[in-house]
Amino acid sequence: MANQIDTVEKVITRRDILKYTGYLGAAGGIVSLLNACGTQGSSQSTQKSLTAVIGYGNNQSWDPSKTASAFSMAAILHAYEPLVGGDPVTREPYAALAKSLPTNLTGTTVTFELRDGATWHDGQPVTADDVVFTYARALNPTDNVLIRSFFSLWLDSVTKVDDRTVKFNLKFPFPYVLQRVQTAMIMPKHVFDGHWDDAKAGKVVGSGPYQITAQVPLSSTSFKRFPRYNGPRPAVFETMEWKSIVDASARVAAISGPLPRVQIAENIPAANADALKTAGRTVQYADGMNNLFLLFNTKHAPFDNKLVRQALHYAIDRKQIVDIALKGAGDPARSYINPHLPGAPASIDAFPYDPAKAKSLLSQAGVSNLNVTLQSSNTSVVAASIALIKQNWDAIGVNTTLAPQDTAALFSKMDGGLDFQVLTTTGNPMQFGIDTDLLTRYYYSKDGTWMKTYARWTTLEADALYKLQDQVVQEADATKRAALEQQLQQMLADNAILFPLVFTKMGMAWDAKKLAGVRAQGYPGINLLQAKAL
Predict the structure, then answer these.
(1) Which in 278, 425, 433, 441 has the greatest CB count within 10 A?
(2) pLDDT digits (tens, 9 = 90+) for 286-305
(3) Is residue 61 within 8 Å of 271, Cβ to Cβ?
(4) Are residues 330 and 417 in the same domain?
């Protein structure tokens, strides 16, 4: 998957830093020259340029309705706008492309008026037709875009009232309207109608504060300030250069030293935090939904038996994974949703380390001499973790074979119907939002890829879980809804189809002498919409 996350790498040595800063020094000189040329004649100082490092490739889909690429999603937030924006950490809503936030959210219609003077990057005005166009695609079962599962349950249609106003027609009052609308970036109909491949390939025409001016796959993406932007989050920098650096050594090197070549870098290994702080960088880590999980193929016996799935979870020492694989930058997962998130259900204390119980559950299931092949991605956090998982499983008499491989190759096989047994990798639905329904439905959706294609979970238990999901969001009383959410957490653990092992903290470092107004966030990427250049 394009958004798979690798948060723990080897400790970066002084030799690594010298090597990579040498490389980046030459590149930085070229980038600085290009930035200076690109901003000649600007009314703002060319000192307001920024160079950032993103720890993921920029060569995945750039279609806002379909991408799960960490790099693309972060960049898209700076170039496109939803009707309602959200704080990068709390997701507290604010009016983005909408003129104001609606006040009545208890009924089955919600009306949004567009911001006066909102303009696309090609100079055309943003209209209600663009909003209707975007949501028609989001709801279309034939297109079946990634964000469809975030809307199809509760949103019937979006209709035009006039050129500046749209009406959302809900199937029932939905408690997370303002949070969920944040996931749909409005796209210009006159640019992308019938031309979705252009969006996928990297064409970006938004209404946001920055225009994307250049794409160099697996290298960098360039931005410039959009002078006609009149929204609530104006561009702070005349130009930005986001470097795609997957290698952790180069990421750390770029933000290291007395004169770092970049002002901010994300996906910082915990092992390097102290050295960066000593060098004068600000380093922060944030809780989120970035997690290492187990996924079972329920059509492959004996993993159709939940006792076997539970046994393999009880056998894993989650704290050991945190201490060794994550270098302490994380927490054992005791619930499906990280309880540290705002509004999250309380922990249910699922799967404490208990090898004796694991053996007992296997015995109850009538399973002995179990052989397991554990498929996995090959990022360093996964590689360090699967060695510990094998050690734990072997200790209870489960003969474990590890099968790590490149992430893209692994999921290409999964999409092709790989008859796997168990899979472990990392993921983070929090890229899209933090309401509990979204975090659950990202993986647990009846027609979604994870449950239908990968887990092959089509049992009565699955139907009961999906029914409870729908019941949660249709409950108007907040206290009753919270109780149902807690019940859902227990059901997710009981079935253990896809359940996290650990939640990893996401690290970010920046040069506080050059940059302010940024915060670490519990999902990949950076958000500079409230940054300040010093």
Answers:
(1) 425
(2) 999 999 999 999 999 999 99
(3) no
(4) yes
Pair 180, 244 in one domain:
no
d(CA 246, CA 9): 11
Q: Give the 3-state secondary structure of residue 461.
A: helix
Quick one: 497 and 515 in the same domain?
A: no
Model confidence over 358-401: pLDDT tens digits?
999 999 999 999 999 999 998 778 999 999 999 999 999 999 99
Quick one: DSSP state of residue 117?
T
- 471's CB contacts (< 8 A; 6+ apart) are 484
Cα separation of 293 and 318, whole Å?
Answer: 11
494 token code pair: 């009981």
CB atoms within 10 A of CB 331: 20
Note whether 500 and 416 are same-domain residues: yes
What is 343-360 written as a DSSP string?
TPPPP-------HHHHHH
Alpha-carbon gap, residue 120 to 38, rounded angstroms: 21
Q: Global pTM?
A: 0.84
Domain that holds residue 342: 291-504
Residue 25 in contact with residue 256, Cβ under 8 Å? no
306 and 254 in a single domain? The answer is no
My answer on whether 308 and 427 are in the same domain is yes
CATH number at residue 253: 3.40.190.10
d(CA 38, CA 225): 11
- Please give the Cα distance from 283 to 266 (Å, whole number): 10
Residue 404 lies in a domain: yes
Q: Do 377 and 387 belong to one domain?
A: yes
Radius of gyration of the chain (CA): 23
At 209-248, the pLDDT tens digits run 999 999 999 999 999 999 999 999 999 999 999 999 988 8
Number of helices and strands in the chain (H, E)? 16, 20
**What b/e string do you get for 236-260 counting C-beta neighbours within 10 Å, with b at 16 or more?**
bbbbbbbbbbeebbbbbbbbbbeeb
Is residue 75 in some structural domain?
A: no
Domain count, the chain: 3
102/36 same-domain check: no
Q: Which pLDDT does position 45 carry in this prediction?
A: 39
Quick check: is 457 in a domain? yes
Residue 30 within any structural domain of the chain = yes
CB 284, CB 508: distance < 8 Å: yes
